[in-house]
Amino acid sequence: MENDEAVKKLRGWFSGRLPGEWFEGQPEIVLDREEIAVVGRLQAPALGDDVSEAERAAAVEGGVQRFREETRERRIEIALEAEHRFRRKVSWGVAVGDETVMFTTLSVPVMTRLRQSERRVLDTLVAAGVARSRSDALAWCVRLVGKNTDTWLTDLRDALQHVDRVRASGPDLNS
Known about the structure:
Helix content: 40-55%
Strand order of the largest sheet: 1-2-3-4
Radius of gyration: 20 Å
Low-confidence stretches: none
Order of helices and strands: HEEHEEHHH
Number of helices: 5
């Protein structure tokens, strides 16, 4: 788990590096061992109260697509610089209203050992057509757990960040 200081450093670097007109406020930075995800908030399209939900959704989709196309070259340039500097891949996304759209993300292989009862869960998902393979079924399960236990996972991440802060303030054992 990365500490708060690493995220703050990244947020500061990206805030200084990104054009000011791209996002409303600072982008959200999500960090793990392999990837830095940069998610900026776009202004919602200015539409009247009388437009349908379908029209509103289409306007958001069009605005996201426009932003993606207009900023592509600059985002690639910034990502390459950040990847060299921070030794992690950079993914991009935007948030508009309650919706978040990721343009790029890494898909990282993860190895695990499962007992028969656990493999049977995955095989049932494959047999039912929920997933194409055990790998897809496992990814589906992880997304489902993440979606349904968001509050618990947030509390757990906060606790791990506290552990990182306490470790950082302790004595240096390497000297």
